[in-house]
Amino acid sequence: MQNNQADTVVDDVAVEEANKAIEETKVDEVEPSQNPSVIDDLAKEIRRARAEWENTSMTERPPLPKITVSRKAELLIKQVNQAIRLEMAEETPDLNNSNLLQYVTAYVISEKLGKTPKTPKRRSNTQLQPKWKTRIENQIKGMRADLSILSDMAQKSETQKIS
């Protein structure tokens, strides 16, 4: 019976330590920025970008560049998270709004880090066809060329017979 009580006490201590660690990380995440005007500026940038991309469908938005992890990027992401909290408090929760907010936020972060969004590459019409179809069409073109050469040879031989 003493072992069960000792195990329970150890478990309670471990749970309390884990809860304290979780609370400490939450405090670090929510810790306000040194300069609140930076967060306000980021919120304005998010609103500007949101107005820019609001009427664009998800399929028409350019893909975003990958952001490499650095101290500058991590600091910017923490500041943007605080700005997002301000934006999310003002709006009604909606899946489309959340998706747009995520895209716009990533767009603003990439702009601030000096990364430009990738422009989508347009594929030509021939690449949209399956490879087997392209291969068959090329074979047909080759056979038509051979047929044209043979028909020219046949016409020349007929004209030589006549003369």
Secondary structure: elements and pairs:
Blueprint: H1 2-30, H2 36-53, H3 71-90, H4 95-112, H5 125-128, H6 131-162
Helix pairs in contact: 2-3, 2-4, 3-4
Q: Can you tell me about this structure?
A:
The chain has six helices and no strands. It is mainly α and 163 residues long. It has two domains: 32-112, no CATH class; 125-162. Residues 6-10 and 25-32 have low confidence and may be disordered.
Cα Rg: 33 Å
Strand content: under 5%
Count of distinct strands: 0
State the distance separating the first and last CA atoms.
122 Å
> Portion of residues in helices?
over 70%
Give the helix tally: 6
Q: Give the ordered list of helices and strands.
A: HHHHHH
Q: How many domains would you count in the coordinates?
A: 2
Mean pLDDT: 76
Summed up, what is this model?
The protein contains 6 helices and no strands.
List keywords for this structure.
single chain, 163 residues, mainly alpha, 6 helices, 74% helix
